[in-house]
Amino acid sequence: MKLSFIAVGISLPLLSACGGGNTEQTFSEKFSQEEAFFAHVQTEQSRTLVAALPTGQAVYSGVMSMTIDVDGVIDTDETVTDPGGDFRAIGDLVVNVDFGVGVQTLSGTVSNFQADEGKDLSGSLTISSTGLTGATFPATYGGTLTLDTSDLIFSAGTISNGEFKGANGDFIIGGHNSTVDWLGQSGGPIGSVSGRIIGTIQ
Fold this sequence. Notes:
- With 202 residues, the protein is mainly β.
- The protein has a single domain, classed as Porin (Beta Barrel).
- It contains one helix and ten strands, in the order ββαββββββββ.
- It has one helix spanning 27-44; strands spanning 2-4, 13-15, 57-69, 87-98, 105-115, 121-129, 136-147, 150-165, 171-182, 191-201.
- Strand 4 and strand 5 (105-115) form a beta hairpin.
């Protein structure tokens, strides 16, 4: 799966978390490209007019990026190899939207995670929404990921400012945050997660 700036006139590819066709691209490069792509869509693409949204069902694919603060203390000097260290991650995003008449729904998954510092992050998260409000949507997400051998339980995850962008609902974007319980630290504090989602219609 690949996101591309070509859709908005910029020929800089944004590869999926699993690496896409460029096996030499570093995690930092992927994270920076996702950040730049999100910023471009957010500032250069208008919110889709309700009348111009797709009809029927549509699938969006892209990425969810996040910074995970496992111990509840933000410290940019820490790395994931430190006890309680903060780290960044990217996962492949697939969102299914039903734009049908009546109750309009949105659901999705995030999987194939990659973390910086070369750590092994596996598992999946589930996204759900009770309905769309015009070209915007509220959504929640949760699930359990595994960092090496320690579980990271995501709870009360929310996607805020979710919206469809572009002339015909070409993009889906939003910010997100959650709490996370790192079971590798028995009795430890609850951490936090924040980041972005960005996807293009397929």
